[in-house]
Specification:
It is built from 5 helices and no strands. It is mainly alpha-helical. The mean pLDDT is 85.
């Protein structure tokens, strides 16, 4: 489920390297592309964060019953979903961490004012579309 520890470390290192290359000017991404990539990353983080919040409610251990085997099964599912070191919750947090690192690379290519203007313009357009329907 998700990224293995070595694969996660490798992915994180790759994005850290890209971040350093961007900072030193060795990596160039057009501002418009960086903006679009950042928007997709932000949307994906929102989605992952919503999923992360739901992991708390995936398993109710008591709902499995009072038999010892039922309780053990419920605890196993709870570890897989929420409390284990390789649980869905942990994997989602790792994915969020990688996406945040990706965003740090893209954010280097536009200043905050331009980003805010573009985001406001996009929001106004979406509101206008919603009113037209």
């Amino acid at each position: 489920m998700g990224l293995e520890t070595n694969e996660l470390a490798s992915t994180m290192q790759q994005w850290r390297s890209l971040s350093m290359q961007a900072e030193s000017g060795q990596l160039q991404i057009p501002e418009g592309v960086a903006f679009q990539c950042d928007e997709v990353c932000a949307a994906y983080i929102r989605h992952l964060t919503e999923m992360l919040a739901k992991t708390k409610n995936l398993v109710d251990v008591k709902a499995f019953g009072t038999l010892d085997s039922a309780r053990q099964l419920g605890e196993k599912f709870e570890r897989i979903a929420f409390s284990g070191d390789r649980s869905l919750r942990v994997v989602l947090m790792q994915h969020i961490e990688v996406i945040e690192l990706m965003r740090s690379v893209f954010k280097r290519y536009f200043d905050e004012a331009e980003y805010t203007d573009q985001r406001t313009l996009k929001s106004i357009g979406e509101i206008a579309e919603g009113l037209g329907k």
